[in-house]
Amino acid sequence: MTDRMDMPLIRRLRGARQLVRARLADIDPNPRQPRRCFPQASISALAESIRRHGLLEPLLVRRAATGRYELIAGERRLRALKQLGVEAADALVLPENGQDEAIMALVENLHREPLGYFEEAEAYRAWMDEHGLSQEELAARLVRSPSAVANKLRLLKLPPAVREELQRAGLSERHARALLRLSGSERQLAAARQAAADRLTVRQLETLVARMLTEPLSAPAVRSLCRDHRLFVNAINSTVKALQKSNAAVTSRVVEHEREVEVIVTIPRDAWRTAACREETPGRPEMSTQISAQAQMSVAKTAETC
Fold first, then answer.
1. Which residues are catalytic?
2. pLDDT digits (tens, 9 = 90+) for 150-177
3. Are 51 and 70 in contact (CB under 8 A)?
4. CA distance 30 to 46
């Protein structure tokens, strides 16, 4: 039943209406239809009611530039009539332009079977974009508070994957609002899936969200960018050359195999002895340890870079 608060809109439209007998084949669906889901059981029940009692309310259409009709309101009735095999039905024709006339499709859907909350939010956004309406102007036309319209539009901040999960699980609009506190689509989707799997109430989901907000965000995984083994081989050879410059008799050899690369580094036990220094002197072991550590650091830094 039409809400009494919407009667001014209805009265403005009555004077512009023209009742015609329209062929259903000449009526195109409304491209801005807010409702996306039309359960077959509901259409069949409506078709049976029309078969028994007739069409109690005509379709609402307007003339398109092509000369055909464009449906404004009555998608369920049109589908039910087609299911019954009806070829023509009464229709009220509205002017070709006008925001009031176009918004009737949304009003009608809100007064009949409730739209899904995401369907309603998407319809709000579509009408605002198409007709340049502000949230306050749309709220006035729908006889709703501006805060109600704003809260509905906020739901569109949830990414499509999260919306699909909420709809699949049959979770409520309050569940959706609870997820808006989380930043990042991955966290929102994880919370939505847990709410669906554990059948969480709104209060339980709010508790889960509050707990997730106290947890630190996980650091992004570091992905290795090194795809060429030669970078590691070059790092080892560079270390060997650095040791050689320190008068160490160190050599390296690279052996290529089919599935691997073998790098052989040869360090004589007396690599640190030179002609000028054949006697052990204090501090020489420390020098060996230091250069060895430098070699390890060089390879480690290359691995980190890669």
1. 75
2. 999 999 999 999 999 999 999 999 999 9
3. no
4. 19
